Q: What sequence folds into this?
């Protein structure tokens, strides 16, 4: 039996997401910490970070993360890009609402001002994703 998104995420998934919540998540969840928590290695490149794009065959670091804007963009073949929400949607294969719910649940652990080490953040993020996927 396949459960609907409302059963997986609870009643909050069916409610309209406020623009304030979406903006807060896009601003407060550090894309750099999120990407590192997923196990990707970032290399400093001036004020930005670069890595090989995980969305296509990439031999050079074509994906750029700009921490000051909290955005990412692939300068290579796929030309994908966006915010932390877009990153979660693309890497996890989930809808916009599901991505917001995942990030909302992790906000205390992944907020830009968090003092937790990347290892602790990675462990908590993996546990949260595993919990959501096993429902």
A:
């Amino acid at each position: 039996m396949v459960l609907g998104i409302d059963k997986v995420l609870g009643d909050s998934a069916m409610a309209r997401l406020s623009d304030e919540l979406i903006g807060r998540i896009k601003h407060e969840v550090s894309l750099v910490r999120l990407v590192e928590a997923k196990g990707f290695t970032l290399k400093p490149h001036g004020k930005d970070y670069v890595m090989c794009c995980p969305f296509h065959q990439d031999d050079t670091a074509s994906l750029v993360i700009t921490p000051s804007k909290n955005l990412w963009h692939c300068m290579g073949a796929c030309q994908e890009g966006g915010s932390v929400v877009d990153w979660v949607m693309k890497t996890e294969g989930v809808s916009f609402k599901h991505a917001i719910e995942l990030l909302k649940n992790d906000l205390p652990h992944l907020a830009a001002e968090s003092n937790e080490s990347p290892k602790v953040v990675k462990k908590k993020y993996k546990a949260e994703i595993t919990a959501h996927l096993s429902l």
The beta strands are 43-45, 48-51, 63-66, 71-74, 81-82. The chain is about 45% helix and 15% strand. The first strand starts at residue 43 and ends at 45.
